[in-house]
Each structure stands twice: as C-alpha cells, then as structure tokens.
Design a protein that fits this description.
Layout (H helix, E strand, L loop, with lengths): L1 H25 L3 H26 L3 H26 L5
Helix pairs in contact: 1-2, 2-3
Length: 89
C-alpha cells in the first residue's frame, strides 16, 4: 500500500508542477506570476522530499532546504519590489 500512495503522490505533484508552469506562462498579472513561481518552488521542494524518501539519501533534503530558503528570500524581494518599486532601502 505504501508504494501505491508514494507513486500517486509523485504523479499528483508532477501534475501540479505542470499546472504552475502553465500558469506562469499564460497569466497577465505580475503578482499572479510571483505567486505561481512561489508555488512552483514549493512543488520542487516536495519533489526533492519525495526523491529523498525514495533513495534514502539526505543530500536531496539538504538541497530542498537550501531551495526553500532562497525561494523565501526571492518571494519577499519580489513582493517588496511589486509594492514599492524598490527592493532595498
């Protein structure tokens, strides 16, 4: 039963990954693109977590943690730029 759930989660995550890519390409609003890109980063972190579970290797989990930190900083910078038209100061 564990393998069936694992593969179902992988398929669902990849489908959501594709939906986020389509949303980034087809939307007209900048803030929607930022949110879709943030969701895309979240899906990539989830995929890295699933790969960690499949391979029993912690290297992918370290990469997921680094990506999460960078994605958070990028999202905050994009939101600040969108609101004030300046990233810093």
């Amino acid at each position: 039963m564990h393998a069936i759930v694992f593969y179902a989660v992988i398929i669902w995550t990849v489908i959501l990954f594709g939906v986020c890519i389509v949303l980034i390409i087809r939307t007209a609003s900048t803030i929607t693109r930022v949110l879709a890109l943030d969701t895309l980063n979240l899906m990539l972190i989830a995929i890295l977590g699933l790969i960690t579970s499949a391979n029993n290797s912690t290297y992918y989990l370290d990469a997921a943690l680094a990506l999460a930190l960078l994605a958070f900083v990028g999202t905050v910078a994009a939101a600040r730029y969108y609101s004030t038209k300046r990233v810093f100061s």
